Amino acid sequence: TEGISVKDLAEKLDVRGKDLIASLLMRGVFVTVNQSLEGELVKDVARQFGADATVISVEEQLENEAIEGFLEDTTGMVEIVRAPVVTIMGHVDHGKTSLLDAIRSTDVAAGEAGGITQHIGAYKVHVTKPDSPAFGREIVFLDTPGHEAFTRMRARGAKVTDIVVVVVAADDGVMPQTLEAIDHAKAANVPIIVAINKIDKPGADSNKVKQQLAERGLQLVGWGGEVEFVEVSAKKKLNLDLLEEMICLVADIASPKAVPERPAVGTVIEAKLDRGRGAVASILVQNGTLRTGDSYIVGNTFGKIRAMFDDRGRAITEAGPSTPVEILGLEGMPDAGDTFLVMADRDKAKGIAQYRKMKEREAQLAKSSRVSLEGLAEQI
Ligand code: GDP
Ligand code: MG
């Protein structure tokens, strides 16, 4: 860590340098105005002078500046409508995985462009309509269905999804996790599309599903409400085109935007330690464009993009907004839901990563000492 000079600290605390030096002297710390102070000592001294105990360190300030800059400075840059990002949720066995697989298999561009589908946590589907050749759209599906992933990301403050598709099996009806999915989507303020699945099954009763949903406060179109729905069969691949069309329609209302020119910002979808390749992370680029050679901070680690791959395992050099990519060459392991930020220089990224790691260690230490104190109290 770089620390802060006595002079700067005095300025921040609005005290005379002389007084600060005197106070340090009392603590047995001999310094001159240009000398650098670090960590706890800075906090202690600051506290003594009545400053907020949460004095912002140089690294923290760096981080704030960096993030603010990346979030705001897009003046004069062109904004585009980016592809919507969709999460599929619903009760277990209602067909989330089947639906994702079925949709993936409809991707005509997949066959043309070559490459084998890679499971990198998210994938892009190219939607076309045979009767209108001009129609070409893209939808990104998060491949980690399940409430856990969604909740984990939301807990980290990551907003990755634009639309939630709630799958309900027409033979089984509304179940506890169906309601949970609806609650998640509502809490995240994300529009819902209901996919009534398994309509091929003999026991399928989609009217019952609609009624059950209405009773639970989710009124579908035609049932006194505005929530769109599609009746599908993942198994028989029925109406998947209608579902995709509906996703595009709902996306048009929200019309999520991005600025391709800016440095990339994204979220970690998943991360793993790969034998031979080291730390590997799937990132959803949400804004800006990620390029090979870019330095970045992600969670409390950092790195430089030496190579990246798309959802078909093809090496790419650029990834624009709403593109899932797999990146290698991370210095450590990030977590799902961590924010990914391209930084102007590697040293800054490294500094921030070290700072975050230190904070994490401090928090862990505080926790473990609290635990051992509690243990001690119990013994007494
Ligand atoms: P998940 O737990 O929500 O991911 O559900 P799965 O996709 O694993 O599906 C659970 C079971 O339902 C599997 O045996 C699927 O083959 C079956 N299934 C999924 N979709 C359909 C469908 O549209 N029709 C029928 N008949 N079965 C389906
Ligand atoms: Mg599944």
UniProtKB/TrEMBL annotation:
<feature type="binding site">
    <location>
        <begin position="90"/>
        <end position="97"/>
    </location>
    <ligand>
        <name>GTP</name>
    </ligand>
</feature>
<feature type="binding site">
    <location>
        <begin position="143"/>
        <end position="147"/>
    </location>
    <ligand>
        <name>GTP</name>
    </ligand>
</feature>
<protein>
    <recommendedName>
        <fullName>Translation initiation factor IF-2</fullName>
    </recommendedName>
</protein>
<comment type="similarity">
    <text>Belongs to the TRAFAC class translation factor GTPase superfamily. Classic translation factor GTPase family. IF-2 subfamily.</text>
</comment>
<comment type="function">
    <text>One of the essential components for the initiation of protein synthesis. Protects formylmethionyl-tRNA from spontaneous hydrolysis and promotes its binding to the 30S ribosomal subunits. Also involved in the hydrolysis of GTP during the formation of the 70S ribosomal complex.</text>
</comment>
<feature type="binding site">
    <location>
        <begin position="197"/>
        <end position="200"/>
    </location>
    <ligand>
        <name>GTP</name>
    </ligand>
</feature>
<feature type="domain" description="Tr-type G">
    <location>
        <begin position="81"/>
        <end position="257"/>
    </location>
</feature>
